[in-house]
Amino acid sequence: MAKTTYYVPIGPIHPALKEPIRVEAEVEGEKIVKVNVKRGFAHRGIEYMGMKRNAIQTLYLSERICGICSISHPYAFVIGSEKALGIEAPPRAQYIRTIIAELERIHSHILWLGVIAHEIGFDPLLFWTWKGREKVLDVLEAITGNRINYSMYMIGGVRRDLKESHIKALRDMITYYWEFTEHMKEVFLSDPVYKARTRGVAQLSKEMALKLNVVGPTARAAGLRMDIRQDIPYDAYADMDIKAVVPQDIVGEAGGDAYDITMVRLYEIEQSLDIIEFCLDNLPEGKILAIPNYVALLNKIKKTEGEAIGAHEAPRGEVIHYFKYDGKRDGPAVWKVIAPSYNNINSWAPLLLGAEVADIPVVVAYIDPCMCCNDRVAVVKDSSGRILDYSYLHKKAVEKTRKLEKELGVRK
Amino acid sequence: MTLTAEEILERLKEKLGDAILNYEIKEYKMGVKRPRTYQEIWMEVNKDAFRKAVEAIFEIDYPHLHFIAGEDVGEVIKMIYSFGVFHSHPWGEVSIVMKLDLPKSNLVLPTITDLMIGAETNEREIREMLGIEFEGLKNKRHLFLPDDWPEGKYPWRRDEYGVEDMIKHTHKSVKEIRKQRGEQNG
User: Fold this and answer.
1) Would the pLDDT of A18 be above 60?
2) What is the ipTM metric for this complex?
3) Taking CA atoms, what residue in B is nearest to A243?
4) CB pairs under 8 A between A and B
């Protein structure tokens, strides 16, 4: 009998993805033999819009690039703008910015841990992690007024100061998360089924990671010590000795798989707690904005010529903004944005090749830890008329977990 | 072993000579309690020496490509490449920003995807947004623009190849406009 392959398109709308993207996989039995990734379904032309607005409007527009890491783009934006315009943010503002950025890393990493647990069929773990995540969202809401899209940063500082009550809430939160992370480490890293389900899945070597130009936890799980906070530090990070979290420092070697990326993310939560604690202990006094008058700021922008690169290490990898102010208008003349997923999606095709159908959700969630609320996916029929949709893929993934559980004797 | 910005620049000058048209080392102060400076190299190179310059950077250290951007400034398109060498070292990464002028009469550049596969995304984006042809780029499918995007329209161009007239007529379909102009492939 001749071998027949069938074709599984995932997306553009898919529950494991934040943004619409399409993965077309050709499957032979359980193995994927050909992959094609298509993107561009959500291109909103934000860079084009930004070049037509003034810099403060563009700053808030940049916050809307990503919903989950809504601090990353404004952070890169203010750093780049300050470098180009020669403005220096007051010390207190620099520390507050660092605290907010680390709070975001904590909530983003916990969110991802929930997503990966869901993808392999541990829904109670999803509910538990997301319940734990509420604490950091509450603190963010208390400080900035919003759970997401905080509108906190400004060129030359921040817009809101930290009050005594906020500092107390932050210290409470740190105590809570030291304990919570300890539990999470126990659950994720020592569970034999989780280990069996993620070890060797989505494995990326160090050389491949370099060549594919991947960034953030994806690169670090493969053993690359790459972290903007360590390589070219800024703000309060420059006062600390940040070390990139890599698996070889924790367990001796880097596997570059979904298990290692879980480990990197868990240890980075602890690192973030340390950073926030350092910032609170050393929080300088003083003002929070270099140029409080926005009209004066826009006038300065209109008179200054300059270009610079702003880089920030977002939870998912580095965010890079390139600016050019031409001294004729009050907004950027050129604005180029590189988000972490732009580079990280490069690794989908090589990772999916040769993987099993049941591992597709893991691979997809591994790179882009974001979720969309819709359960709509393209429906495909193979030659016998069987329908392969998201629930089928998810069922497959859960079945594999249950089978492993039985084999390992965890569940009877 | 990492090199400082000055040492990297010396090496690049040795390799490229006159092909570096001008250069600058930008210094930034970072940190509150322990302020330190870090440096970036900004240089402009001759268009013909582009490939040689990229190879020189790859010889110094396998870099991390930050971005490729371009700006339409009338007669030429200014290309901006940014590489980070010696990443993975505390305070060690040096950004090398390389700029070059491409005349609009000949918008062709050699690809760097043979040195770094990950650059494919950036090159495909620049190709469809600014209309620059990359010699040797294997995958030339559209990245962000739809497959049926009209040919010869580049969203980031500020000249007659830009999308200004498409934006003015958003209520009309591209098909209609082309039909009015009597163009083929409507």
Assistant:
1) no
2) 0.87
3) B90
4) 108
